[in-house]
Specification:
The structure is a homodimer. The first copy, chain A, is mostly helical. The first copy, chain A, has helices spanning about 10-40, 40-50, 50-60, 60-80, 90-105, 110-120, 125-150, 160-175, 175-180, 190-210. Chain A binds a DNA duplex through helix 1 and helix 3.
DNA sequence: AATTCTTTTGACCAATTGGTCAGGTTGACG
DNA sequence: CGTCAACCTGACCAATTGGTCAAAAGAATT
């Protein structure tokens, strides 16, 4: 899903890409911290060390910039979604998916926050994605989970709620990072704490749906 | 925790309370849908059918109104927190707490969204609550969960992550209601679906931490 | 070197919006 | 009924901010 990066054809092309990436990254952070309305083009410009008028050269309107930020996040989400291997066994498929989502929460906290913000406010921009791509992905995975149930590999559970549980628990570590840091003595998680969080979430969910786990070696 | 409602002493007093309640309720909804910056006093005024200047009579600034909306939500949260009975057994205490939180997600979706928004954006207003009241409550419940572990009533799990899991899964149904409705054919959950969600979440979490459950009657 | 196209930028504008205020209205109370 | 305090409200203002534009600077091409 990730777009392969091609070589820039010229100095111009290279600079252009750098500038675009810089604006998108800065915008992601500002939008995450202040919301769509609260983020100002001036703040994004300052964060990227560019004059405001330059932003409008690359992104005609704030909405255009915001939309591209959100689309980028959605692609990252899709990338993780593919790790939910429909061929593997429950422990593998779900375990890999949960771990991948936890990694994203750690590596892309701003993107996750922008996404959360967007959905909380009624998803005015991404409504189409939810209805099409997300709905299709969800349906396909629900079918897989139902097959597992039928085969007795997991307890009978409503697959939809299982997916919601995975989404909410993993994204919580990104979206509510400030609350979590505050309850962690004011400092963000370190490597060990992230590892423990991932393990803990994975274990509880897998055990919670009665996954038949491979015997510990 | 909920403040007992006293009788109004006069017609004025009664009207005053009604107006305050109306503004707070309307503000909660507008803040939930548009965020702190995106919500305008004019929109809240229109929603409450009041002239804008009247809002400023009761709440001098938008921040004052916002702060009171957030404080009200925090009190509702505290009310649910008390249902986490430190005397009961794990199944009772956690089950009641989860169910209560699910009820709040259904009955106060706007409040939950405002709270989520606030935390996502770094909790500029409620930082004090997180550091004091929330931290104390969390510590006290962690102690209880550790006692359960010690007594062998539940598996050894990191209590902090268990709490985060309960918070995230239950609040997800309020905060991401739009996404959930979209994946539900565009309509919000009905009674039966809420009941199933509650049961499903409760079961997976309780089983996930190995709670010794009372034998089914 | 000359030309053309892309990119950069400071100055500017119009619309939005939080907040003010003076004057009017209404209820409480003696 | 008269007085006073609380309440209501239309009109207004100053600050912010998304977006524009013309002119300058820089790269590519001939």
């Amino acid at each position: 899903m990730l777009v392969p990066v091609e070589k820039p054809k010229s100095k111009r092309e290279g600079l252009r890409r750098e500038t675009l990436a810089l604006i998108l990254a800065t915008g992601e952070q500002i939008f995450a911290d202040h919301g769509l309305k609260g983020a100002t083009m001036q703040a994004i410009a300052d964060g990227a060390n560019l004059p405001k008028a330059n932003l409008h050269y690359y992104f005609p309107t704030k909405h255009d910039l915001y939309r591209q930020v959100v689309e980028r996040i959605f692609n990252i989400w899709l990338d993780a979604a593919e790790s939910f291997d429909t061929q593997a066994n429950p422990e593998q498929a779900l375990g890999t998916y949960i771990r991948k989502k936890m990694e994203i929460s750690r590596s892309h906290p701003y993107g996750s926050k922008v996404w959360a913000n967007e959905v909380i406010h009624g998803a005015p921009i991404i409504h189409d994605y939810l209805e099409t791509t997300l709905a299709e992905w969800t349906d396909s995975r629900i079918a897989v989970i139902e097959r597992w149930e039928f085969e007795g590999l997991i307890d009978p559970v409503n697959p939809r709620h299982l997916l919601y549980m995975i989404w909410s628990t993993t994204q919580h570590y990104a979206d509510f990072s400030h609350q979590i840091a505050t309850l962690n003595g004011g400092v963000p998680f370190n490597d060990a704490q992230w590892a423990q969080a991932t393990e803990c979430v994975t274990n509880i969910i897998l055990k919670g749906i009665g996954v038949k786990r491979a015997a510990p070696s």
